[in-house]
Design brief:
The structure holds three protein chains of three kinds.
Chain A lengths: L1 H4 L7 H7 L1 H6 L3 H12 L2 H5 L2 E6 L9 E7 L2 E7 L12 H4 L1 H6 L8 E3 L10 E3 L2 H19 L4 E5 L13 H9 L10 H11 L18 E5 L3 H4 L1 H12 L3 E5 L12 E3 L6 H14 L5 H7 L5 E3 L28 E4 L4 E4 L11 E3 L5 E4 H9 L4 H8 L3 H13 L3 E4 L10 H14 L9 E3 L10 H5 L16 H7 L1 E2 L2 E2 L4 E5 L3 H4 L3 H8 L5 E6 L4 H4 L3 E4 L8 E4 L5 E5 L12 H11 L12 H9 L2 H5 L4 H7 L1 E3 L70 E4 L15 H6 L4 E4 L1 H6 L7 E6 L2 E9 L7 E3 L11 E2 L22 E6 L1
Parallel strand pairs in A: 6-19, 7-8, 7-15, 8-9, 15-16, 19-20, 20-21, 25-29, 26-28
Antiparallel strand pairs in A: 1-2, 2-3, 4-5, 4-21, 10-14, 11-12, 13-14, 17-18, 22-23, 23-24, 25-31, 27-28, 27-31, 28-30
Helix pairs in contact in A: 9-24, 10-18, 13-16, 13-17, 13-18, 20-22
Chain B lengths: L2 E6 L8 H9 L10 E4 L2 E3 L2 E2 L10 E4 L8 H5 L5 E3 L6 E3 L9 H5 L7 E2 L25 E2 L5 H4 L6 H5 L5 E5 L6 H8 L2 E2 L11 E4 L1
Parallel strand pairs in B: 1-12
Antiparallel strand pairs in B: 1-10, 2-5, 3-4, 6-7, 8-9, 11-12
Chain C lengths: L1 H13 L7 H8 L9 H27 L14 H26 L8 H22 L8 H4 L6 H27 L5 H27 L12 H26 L7 H30 L5 H9 L4 H19 L6 H28 L20 H7 L7 H24 L13
Helix pairs in contact in C: 1-13, 2-3, 3-15, 4-5, 4-8, 4-9, 4-13, 5-7, 5-9, 5-15, 7-8, 8-9, 9-10, 9-13, 10-11, 10-12, 12-13
The chains are: A alpha/beta, B alpha+beta, C mainly alpha.
Chain lengths: ~800, ~210, ~425
């Protein structure tokens, strides 16, 4: 299949036609066909000149569609959707197809450029320089900073703009950061979802989801704060198949999203209050004896005993020495449950009849409760009456949803990062994960989470990033804490100079919350900022130097996919345009100039880097070699065709007990960087509700800023990528603020009027668009526009920079604003 | 042989992928769309008016309807637009077109036919797409030609294969066994502006 | 709007001038004391020629820079050129019909204006053909019309009929001259005049069918359109003949019985009434079922096209009053009435053309680009909220050039052809 559908490198169009001649010959098109075929034959020159190269989209959109790149006269002329072995995974979208606009468009960074001496950052005055000059200047300036303050004073600011394993964010440039020992701020995008779910499933931040095709086995699909119709069409395909097979679709979203318009039911919840709804539903399941007792007993920690004294589980280690797992180094410390058979504590692995609910005292006098008991007690406060008030949802809708959780065979909850973008985001997803556990919607066909399904397959990241002698990042300061740290030049109360910065695969100015902080708190303290990018992003605009990176089709790379089970090859389809270079080459140049040439052998080609990455157990176990990849173009690296990965079934839950945890024994922040952590750690052990930071209706800010700002992701961009793609701009030409008619009328605003959306952090001026899908109280400005595309300001000036100390994640939607006619 | 499209409006998510694919595959000039994704009852793409509990969004992708009884071919004074008897495709001969725009006026499907009001420009700066697609010309009328160059080689039109929602089907409507005929048999469908009597070969499953 | 009507109609059609502005127009037309073939006519010819050349330059600009310089786009793909085409086809009718009807039916004519009337028809026909040519994207491919004729296309019919009409008009003019010189039998002239008359009626019907046979546009798709085009043609054609006759009489080019003028005025009044009657029938038919046709009625009476609708209705009504009221039939008022009728019919053409595009069949929201409409960035409401089409200066310029071509031909006819009535022909050179 793979051979048939992907042409070997350099196969010309003409040969390709011959190869598929059987198809053409079999067509019964009569005279027209003959004449058109004859026409094709009559232009042999053009035909001969067309090369077909395989490519893979890798923008971190949550998918990785393959395209065949057709090249004529050295130019990329066509991206044609290409196959995977499971044809239902063949995907493409308007962005992937219009990537050509980004390669050839006027947003492209063509040459190394230096900000003209004496002009302001962001003023747009650039001076073209040679690569030699650029590298020399960077070496000079970074070198001076390193000499004076040490390598940690150079920030390596990296994000997910390119998912290639060699020339993307996981690639050779990261090696540079680790070898030098630059401070690499930890990403804060989209982490709250995983932090919350991890508390139940132990899945880390990224491994909780089922393979998206599992959606077709669901009896009910809930899109909770996510809009796959617009943002993840390849995953939506499976959901649609599920619906066609009878699944019910419910969408929980403050706005009537494009997905909500396709749904059987739309629950228009108040922004940031989803956690309360989930807890109320959980309470209802318990109160009405509708929990899944089998699941709770066999797959959850419901029966595990929690000590009242230490607030931890009663474990084997309380009574005896426990062995250590030789592989992980962690103690193998079993949990006690109360066994009805003996009416006493028995290790979970040995218990015959564990009691799920109850409070006991062990023979040695330790007072314990079962995890379920504690959860039940906590949940009692979440009443439907209060949920109606807080969530703004009718009792009827809540009850209907509760009945679904009680009765549906298998519920898939599609969860990405809508509910994640509040300061209470991890509490919300924690609550949903608990609800799924109580209703037994894990570890069976069609049940569990959909969203970002990441493969377990991976290459030799350690070898890529940490050659012997590499220092690594000396701090795990989250990007969201960068403002304060750079402004004060300290981390955790200790002086920590940060004087220079290099960014790649990232557009932090446009993507970090509270954009003005970037200008006011970071840039004044950074003496020299280099941005490596393909296009002139907001970040590049404000840099001191920009370096032109290759587009995806200008060098080779490998992409381990999200949301489908393959790893695919990117062939070099065209020569790098202008003076652009592959990331790996830029890293090598910089490495040598900075004195770390030993980590970047000059003779290293793509093959060497790729082989280094492939030098790991995962690839070896399945016979994954570069040679094979080049022949087959893509390799299935997770499961087999026909299988469906279900978390908790295909692989066990990843918690220590390998069960769904109703009690979160050891609360720990995702990152520790000296943040203030609330004294009451116990609060984090049992799921609870906390109002959003700004978005709640009861919030004090609501008087002055009655609107909540949602900055939805739409079809036309992935974060900020494709902001300047000319074809897409014909469909979606400019930023607009989508608002409700009542809010507009109150402010005497009509569609197409310019409005200023503002709060104390900043403002932006955009066209208003009255939209029937937007409820009162919400301003929705789709994400991804660059500053120069607004009339004034930027949406990102408005967003709330606050982070929860545990989740350490940006909370873009937890933002109150107001607007007025401009 | 009567080639036609069947488009499942239930599945269509209005993502514009088919439109963008059409754009590049046929090297359609900047500003011109042979295939457009329209939001029914909307004032802008993906935008509706009214009470939030009442409003709904649905999409209809509109390109040449390749009518059985086309209004355009009758009025063209030089036969530059004509119905290919073999395939049923309503074709467009740029070399013949005198640019009178009779066909634009005649076609009931607003916006389907485009005139190149200037020398064709391309978003990437050069023509793209199929090598055997006819080059575009200034001051002639063009429109969806059902990727005739591909159909001639036994391939599907470009917009079909790219659809991420798998909402587009193409085939011979005269063949009762074809996928498109089967779909029309099983599902209820409609044609755009059926009252105009043009009998489009594009059917929408509703 | 004022520019629209004054610029095209009042100045140019009736004051025998070209584009050089009102004062020059008056000067040219007012040079009545000049001898025929003398300075006044020469200036008029010169001015017309200059405007024609200017128009040609603008047309060359349009072809090289692209029709993107016009106000037309995909959603309003025809404009001032086709409006003017309809209008000039209509104007061309009058002269020929006025001239041929008496001869064809062997009844008393309207005095000695027969040849001048035919000359005005020829000039208007040339202008009409010119309008189609400047509207074409690929005028160099005009030859294809004859090589690849699709005889099923109403445009093809029109081109054939219009060509025939032009040739017939010339033949008819030549025949009159020959007949006057006694070199042709009156029977032969009568035959030619019958053929010319049939052709004139056909020309209008076929032009109407370009629009009327298009099922896709609510505004156009009516069986009434062909007879209505004929009646409108009679209105503005007769009005033009009245204006020309009065002007030439005043200029001393010909002497003419006042009785003939009254006859023509009565005729004009009758034609106007018929035309208004057709309009009433059409509005009632459109509006009565209260279906989609009601949108058309609303668009005309209260919508974006209302000014054109009311100017037409009121102008024509006033014209009828002037024509039917003996006391009002002064030379001046008759010219005013005729001008009102001509302006009214032009407004009718604007309504018809723009109205065809004003109501889209598919008004769903989609991507809007500069190729679809000049106001693409103001959304569907911006595009359809006002008049869906307005010409650019270039279009006005090119149109003026074509109009000037008509004048040039007419003036050249006056100068070089024996168009004055034979019995009165007295050399004034």
């Amino acid at each position: 299949m793979s051979n048939q559908n992907s042409s070997p490198r350099g196969l010309t169009r003409r040969n390709f036609l011959k190869a598929s001649g059987a198809v053409a010959g079999a067509s019964v098109l009569g005279a027209t066909a003959v004449s058109l075929t004859a026409l094709a034959e009559s232009e042999p020159a053009a035909e001969e000149a067309e090369g077909v190269f395989c490519g893979v989209c890798r923008s971190n959109c949550g998918y990785s569609c393959r395209y065949n790149a057709h090249v004529r006269e050295g130019k990329l002329v066509k991206l044609e959707v290409a196959d995977y072995s499971d044809d239902d995974y063949r995907g493409s979208c308007l962005k992937g197809l219009s990537y050509m606009d980004r390669i050839y468009g006027d947003t492209r960074i063509q040459y190394p450029m230096r900000r003209v001496e004496g002009t302001d950052r962001g003023a747009g005055a650039w001076e073209r320089i040679t690569w030699d000059e650029a590298i020399a200047e960077i070496a000079d300036k970074f070198g001076a900073v390193i000499d004076q303050y040490g390598p940690s004073a150079v920030l390596a600011e990296i994000s997910s703009g390119n998912n290639g394993v060699i020339n993307g964010f996981q690639g050779v440039l990261s090696r540079l950061a680790h070898v030098v020992g630059m401070t690499q701020p930890a990403s804060c995008y989209d982490y709250a979802t995983g932090v919350g779910i991890n508390r139940v499933l132990g899945s880390g931040e990224w491994f909780f989801a089922n393979e998206p095709k599992s959606a077709q086995d669901a009896s009910m699909i809930i899109c909770w704060g996510t809009n796959p119709v617009s943002t993840m069409p390849q995953n939506w395909r499976w959901m649609r198949y599920g619906i066609e097979r009878g699944a019910k679709l419910t969408v929980i979203d403050p706005v009537k999203s494009n997905t909500a318009h396709k749904a059987d039911e739309w629950i228009g919840i108040q922004p940031g209050q989803d956690g309360y709804l989930a807890l109320t539903l959980s309470n209802w399941l318990i109160q009405n004896d509708k929990v899944d007792w089998d699941f709770l007993k066999n797959r959850s920690t419901a029966a595990f005993l929690v000590r009242r004294d230490t607030k931890t589980h009663l474990r084997k280690s309380a009574y005896e020495e426990v062995p250590v797992n030789p592989q992980t180094g962690a103690p193998m410390d079993d949990f006690y449950v109360w066994d009805q058979a003996v009416d006493g504590p028995v290790l979970a692995s040995e218990a015959v009849e564990p009691v799920l609910e109850g409070s006991f005292t062990t023979p040695d006098g330790i007072a314990v409760d079962t995890a379920y008991t504690l959860l039940k007690a906590e949940l009692e406060q979440y009443t439907i009456e209060e949920a109606v008030r807080i969530c703004g949802v009718s009792e009827e809708q809540i009850l209907s949803l509760a009945e679904d959780f009680a009765s549906q065979r298998a519920i898939s909850v599609c969860i990405t990062y809508g509910i994640d973008h509040y300061v209470n985001g991890h509490l919300t997803t924690w609550a949903i994960a608990i609800l799924m556990a109580l209703s037994g919607n894990y570890a069976k066909a069609g049940a569990g989470f959909l969203g970002y399904w990441l493969q377990l397959f991976g290459g030799n990241m350690m070898g890529m990033w940490f050659p012997e002698g590499a220092v690594g990042s000396p701090s795990n300061l989250p990007a969201g804490a960068l403002y304060e740290a750079v402004e004060k030049q300290e981390i955790d109360g200790q002086p920590y100079p940060m004087k220079a910065m290099i960014s790649w695969n990232s557009n932090a100015v446009s993507n970090f919350a509270c954009q003005n902080n970037f200008f006011d708190k970071i840039l004044p303290h950074i003496d020299f900022w280099v941005v490596v990018d393909v296009e002139m992003t907001d970040s590049a605009c404000y840099a001191d130097m920009v370096l032109p990176a290759c587009s995806w089709y200008e060098n080779e790379d490998i992409r381990v996919s999200y949301n489908h089970p393959y790893t695919a090859l990117q062939e070099k389809a065209i020569e790098p345009l202008y003076e652009s270079k592959p990331d790996s080459e830029i890293a090598t140049l910089l490495g040598h100039a900075l004195g770390y040439g030993w980590a970047f052998p000059e003779e290293y080609t793509f093959d060497d880097w790729a082989n280094l990455w492939l030098d790991a157990d995962g690839p070896k176990a399945i016979g994954f070699t570069l040679e094979r990849l080049r022949k087959e173009k893509f390799i299935r690296t997770q499961g087999e065709d026909g299988s469906t990965y279900i978390f908790g079934e295909t692989v066990p839950f990843m918690s220590e007990s390998m069960r769904a945890q109703l009690y979160y024994e050891n609360p720990a922040p995702r990152l520790l960087y000296g943040q203030e952590i609330p004294e009451d750690v116990d609060r984090e052990r049992i799921v609870y509700y906390r109002a959003p930071d700004e978005a709640g209706a009861d919030n004090a800010l609501a008087a002055d800023y009655p609107m909540v700002l949602l900055t939805e992701h739409n079809r036309y961009r992935t974060h900020t990528q494709w902001f300047g793609a000319a074809t897409l701009r014909e469909i979606d030409p400019e930023p607009v603020a989508r608002i409700n008619q009542a809010d507009a009328e109150e402010r005497n605003v009509a569609t197409d009027d310019l409005i200023e959306v503002f709060n104390e952090r900043g403002h932006c001026v955009v066209k208003a668009r009255i939209d029937g899908s937007i409820p009162p109280g919400i301003v929705n400005i789709p994400k991804g526009w660059q500053r120069r595309q607004y009339v004034e300001g930027s949406m990102q000036e408005l967003s709330n920079p606050k982070m929860d100390p545990y989740a350490c994640a940006f909370a873009f939607y937890d933002t109150r604003v107001n607007f007025r006619k401009w | 042989m009567r080639y036609g499209f069947v488009i499942d409006q239930q599945r269509c998510i209005g993502c514009h992928t088919c439109a963008v694919e059409c754009r590049f595959a046929n090297s359609v000039p900047e500003g011109t769309w042979w295939n457009r994704v329209l939001t029914e009852d909307g004032v802008f793409c993906d935008t509706c008016e009214g009470d939030i509990n009442e409003v709904s969004l649905s999409y209809v992708t509109v390109a040449c309807q390749h009518c059985e009884n086309p209004a355009c071919t009758k009025v063209c004074p030089v036969g530059a637009t004509y119905k290919d008897p073999e395939t049923g495709i309503v074709c467009q001969d740029y070399d013949k077109c005198i640019g009178c725009r009779m066909c634009v006026a005649a076609c009931p499907y607003t916006g389907v036919r485009s005139f190149n009001w200037e020398e064709p420009k391309y978003t990437v700066g050069f023509p793209t797409g199929d090598a055997d697609a006819a080059p575009h010309q200034k001051h002639v009328v063009e429109k969806c030609i059902m990727c005739r160059q591909r159909v001639a080689k036994g391939e599907e039109p470009a917009c079909v294969r790219v659809c991420p929602a798998r909402a587009r089907f193409w085939g011979d409507l005269d063949d009762p066994e074809s996928e498109v005929s089967q779909l029309l048999k099983k599902r209820s469908s409609r044609q755009l502006l059926a009252e105009e009597g043009t009998n489009p070969n594009v059917h929408f499953l509703v | 709007m004022a520019d629209f009507s004054s610029g095209v109609i009042v100045d140019d059609d009736l004051d025998f001038s070209a584009a050089q502005g009102r004062s020059k127009t008056r000067e040219a037309a007012g040079a009545k004391t000049a001898a025929w073939g003398g300075r006044g006519l020469n200036i008029a010819i010169g001015v017309s020629a200059v405007v024609v050349v200017a128009g040609l330059v603008l047309w060359a600009m349009q072809l090289s820079g692209g029709m993107v310089q016009t106000g037309m786009r995909n959603l309003n793909s025809w404009g001032l050129y086709i409006t003017s085409f309809m209008f000039f086809v209509g104007l061309s009718a009058g002269g020929l019909i006025i001239s041929s009807v008496p001869k064809a039916f062997g009844i008393a004519g309207f005095g000695g204006i027969s040849k001048v009337a035919v000359m005005s028809s020829i000039a208007c026909t040339v202008a009409a053909i010119g309008m189609v040519v400047v509207d074409l994207g690929q005028p160099m491919r005009l030859w294809e019309l004859f090589a690849y004729s699709n005889l099923g296309s109403p445009l093809m019919w029109d081109i054939l009929v219009l060509g025939t009409y032009l040739i017939l008009s010339c033949v008819y003019l030549w025949a009159q001259v020959r007949a006057e010189a006694g070199k042709m039998s009156h029977t032969a002239l009568r035959v030619i005049s019958v053929v010319a008359l049939v052709c004139a009626v056909l020309v209008h019907s076929v032009t109407a069918w370009i629009f009327g046979l298009q099922q896709g546009r609510e505004m156009w798709h009516t069986a009434l359109l062909a007879p209505w085009f004929v009646s409108s043609a009679l209105v503005c054609g007769t009005a033009l003949v009245i204006c020309v006759a009065v002007a030439l009489r005043a200029a001393g080019y010909l002497k003419w019985e006042r009785a003939n003028l009254v006859k023509l005025a009565k005729l004009l009044g009758a034609f106007v009434m018929v035309d208004l009657y057709f309009f009433g029938c059409d509005l009632l038919t459109e509006g009565f079922p209260a279906g989609s046709g009601l949108e058309v009625v609303a668009m005309l009476t209260t919508g974006p096209l209302a000014p054109y609708f009311w100017v037409e209705v009121i102008g024509c009504a006033v014209c009828a009053v002037i024509c039917f009221t003996p006391a009002l039939r002064t030379n001046g008022l008759l010219v005013v009435g005729s001008l009102l009728a001509i302006v009214g019919i032009f407004c009718k053409r604007v309504q018809l053309l723009v109205g065809g595009f004003q109501l889209p069949n598919l008004d769903y929201a989609g991507p809007l680009t500069s190729m679809q409409h000049t106001a693409w960035d103001s959304g569907l409401s911006g595009i359809y909220g006002g008049m869906v089409y307005w010409p650019t200066p270039l279009e006005f310029g090119v149109t003026l050039g074509v109009v000037a071509l008509g004048f040039l031909i007419f003036f050249l006819g006056l100068k070089f052809l024996p168009l004055r009535p034979v019995e009165e022909a007295s050399p004034s050179k």
